[in-house]
Write a structure and sequence with these properties.
Blueprint (H helix, E strand, L loop, with lengths): L6 E3 L17 E2 L8 E8 L2 E2 L3 E3 L2 E6 L5 E7 L2 E7 L3 E5 L5 E5 L3 E8 L1 H8 L9 E2 L2 E5 L1 H15 L6 H18 L1 E2 L13 H13 L7 H7 L4 H12 L3 H19 L4 H7 L5 H12 L3 H8 L2
Parallel strand pairs: 1-5
Antiparallel strand pairs: 2-3, 3-11, 4-10, 6-9, 6-11, 7-8, 7-10, 9-13, 12-14
Length: 301
């Protein structure tokens, strides 16, 4: 009898699920240009996957309204599951996986490139010596929260900020390394923030590139640090996450332009790094309490 073929699932491909699931994802971040992380939202009928192996680390987050009975084979182990809303499954790269479930299911799949973990951890001693552990369905509120936040950003007409996506990706990687890995060296903690030189370089780079869709990895590269350590130490130094700091800088620059120039609001939104005027207006109102138009009218009285 011929052996069953084990399909490779490469999330770098547009639709890696062709041989695995009955339907394509409802939505996908494939074209969103996220850095090392991908999200797909699925609505699939009861089915059975063939045995398959992901090229990247993969997480599944159940969004089912009612428990779903399933049988899962993961890393050579078999388990009967009663999958509930918020349950997560961890399928490490190159680990065989097979699933049979009874009724329609809604779920998120997040894939993470190995290179993303390397960028998060490259300046930490021995952090490369890790192994992600397969994990059957069980609750994990943090992963659930990150998954829903990523899905919300993907569904938003404003498409969100790459810097915010990067921040969520870093948090997710560190959580996986701490909770779902073995042979991991201790991750050092720091009581002080960035050095004055590194902080000045980071702030100067941010100020000079506010019109760009800044990413966490490029800002961290400027000061030659991993994304994780930069993000953590930057917050210790400023009291704000990089994403919060950049947003505040954009709003302050927009306020100056609104007060001192007659440029159109859509042009100002582009100069301060917002992808469209609608997103700019929503963020400005959230921070200042009024729209950019109302602010301009107020300060020019």
């Amino acid at each position: 009898m011929a052996e069953e073929k084990i399909f490779s699932v490469d999330f770098a491909q547009e639709n890696p699920y062709t041989n695995i699931l009955p339907r394509s994802p409802v939505i996908s971040s494939y074209n969103a240009k996220w850095n090392g992380i991908r999200l797909d939202f699925h609505r699939q009928p009861g089915s059975e996957t063939p045995e398959h192996s992901p090229t990247q680390h993969a997480l599944s987050i159940s969004l089912a309204n009612r428990p779903i009975k399933a049988e899962r084979v993961l890393g050579g182990r078999i388990q009967t599951e009663n999958i509930k809303y918020g349950d997560i499954v961890v399928v490490p790269a190159n680990i065989n996986h097979k699933l049979c479930w009874e009724s329609e299911a809604e779920f998120i799949v997040i894939s993470l490139d190995a290179e993303l973990f390397d960028r998060v951890s490259y300046d930490t001693i021995d952090l490369q010596r890790y192994e992600i552990i397969p994990h059957f369905a069980s609750p994990d509120p943090l992963i659930q929260h990150i998954g829903l936040a990523l899905k919300s950003e993907l569904e938003s007409v404003n498409t969100g900020s790459i810097l915010y996506i990067d921040s969520l990706a870093v948090t997710l990687c560190l959580h996986l390394l701490k909770k779902y890995s073995k042979f991991l060296a201790a991750i050092p903690t720091y009581s002080e923030g960035l050095s004055q030189i590194r902080l000045r370089k980071a702030i100067e780079y941010i100020d000079e590139n506010l019109d760009q869709d800044l990413s966490l990895v490029e800002i961290a590269d400027v000061v030659q640090m991993s994304m994780y350590h930069f993000s953590r130490l930057f917050k210790q130094s400023t009291g704000l996450s990089p994403h919060q700091y950049v947003t505040n800088c954009r709003i302050e620059k927009a306020k100056r332009l609104l007060a001192r120039t007659e440029e159109a609001i859509n042009q100002i939104s582009q100069q301060v790094g917002f992808q469209n005027q609608s997103h700019f207006t929503n963020v400005f109102r959230k921070h200042i309490g009024i729209t950019p138009k109302a602010y301009r009218e107020q300060v020019k009285i």
